[in-house]
Amino acid sequence: MTTSSSDTSAHSPTVKADVLSEALPYIRRFHGKTVVVKYGGNAMIEEELQRSFARDVVLLKLVGLNPVVVHGGGPQINDALKRIGKEGTFIQGMRVTDAETMEVVEWVLGGQVQQDIVMMINEAGGKAVGLTGKDGCLIQARKKLLADQNKPGEWLDIGYVGDITRIEPAVVKALQDDQFIPVISSIGYGEDGRAYNINADLVAGKMAEVLGAEKLVMMTNTPGVLDKNGNLLRSLSAQTIDELFADGTISGGMLPKISSALDAARNGVTSVHVVDGRVPHCLLLEILTDQGVGTMISSH
Ligand SMILES: Nc1ncnc2c1ncn2[C@@H]1O[C@H](COP(=O)(O)OP(=O)(O)O)[C@@H](O)[C@H]1O
Ligand SMILES: CC(=O)N[C@@H](CCC(=O)OP(=O)(O)O)C(=O)O
What is the per-residue pLDDT across 273-292, written as a single tens digit (0 to 9) for each? Predict the structure, then answer.
């Protein structure tokens, strides 16, 4: 089929060229800058989407940005637990993690999910390297005690869930310098020699801070943060976030995501976004076009 010069449909050559040309100022602005991408387990739902995610990451690298992937895998851990007859339990968005669950978490995150992402990025023409918190002492952690929201002053023991005590970014920087794309699983290691399960949103936020990232993009399975009526909130300030936490509009897995997004924005990450990972090429849309997608989190 031939296309006339007046054709302005999304598939016309002119529109495609316009989109490419629109990317130029963003490529210049972000050249050499680090972008941390949180790839949530819920955003990995289809193989086709996973492949388009991998292509986007490779494209960002090839045009001069430094993508760092921090991945989750909550639904994939749930599936593995089900296979051994266990049910996943969450308190304030954190998985209660006994010793057996911790073994499953290490196997699913540090093995299956991480290696699938590494393979897809490599197949798309990139050079990805998988890391857990143990590699290069990247994520140091200690046991988390969770404040009991029903009993002020008391703490809940949720097992081998970790708080990050320190990120040692040398290994990530060395990989970036050699043009590799780091793919990081959210498993921390303690001075006690134990592995700790850390919510991937918390790792992504801290990693973005410590690396001095220009952007943190969190890919999930909603259009962004929604209000009580299900409408998309395009931007969120610290004060609105406090209100949405207090009235329960933000709940479950969105709690650690928005807390760490806000911390990252407060601690120097220039722009922080929660985007819909089910939309093909949401990463490119967010980073390289005028069309912002999802919710932007700001520190004021
Ligand atoms: N206000 C809100 N807006 C959007 N999603 C919300 C909100 N509050 C809670 N959620 C829930 O948070 C989920 C995303 O968090 P999570 O399941 O941990 O995803 P991920 O695997 O991407 O980290 C959404 O699917 C939704 O069920
Ligand atoms: C302590 C804790 O909750 N850890 C998470 C780690 C994986 C994760 O965060 O995955 P998503 O990004 O897909 O939610 C868990 O066990 O599910």
Answer: 999 999 999 999 999 988 87
Please report, in angstroms and rounded to a whole number, the separation of the first and last CA atoms in the chain.
52
299 pLDDT band, cuts 50/70/90, is confident
CA 200 to ligand 2 center in whole angstroms: 6
In a domain, 48, yes or no: yes
ipTM beyond cut 0.95: yes
Q: How far is the C-alpha of 300 from the C-alpha of 295, rounded, in Å?
A: 15
Give the closest residue (by CA) to ligand 1 atom 23.
Answer: 40
Task: Answer whether residue 18 is part of any domain.
Answer: no
CA-CA distance, 262 to 157, in Å (whole number)? 25
What CATH number should be reported for the domain holding residue 183? 3.40.1160.10
164, 158 Cβ separation under 8 angstroms:
no
Question: What residues are in contact with ligand 2 under a 6 Å CB criterion?
Answer: 40-42, 72-74, 77, 94-95, 105, 161, 186, 197-200, 253
Number of domains forming the structure of the chain: 1
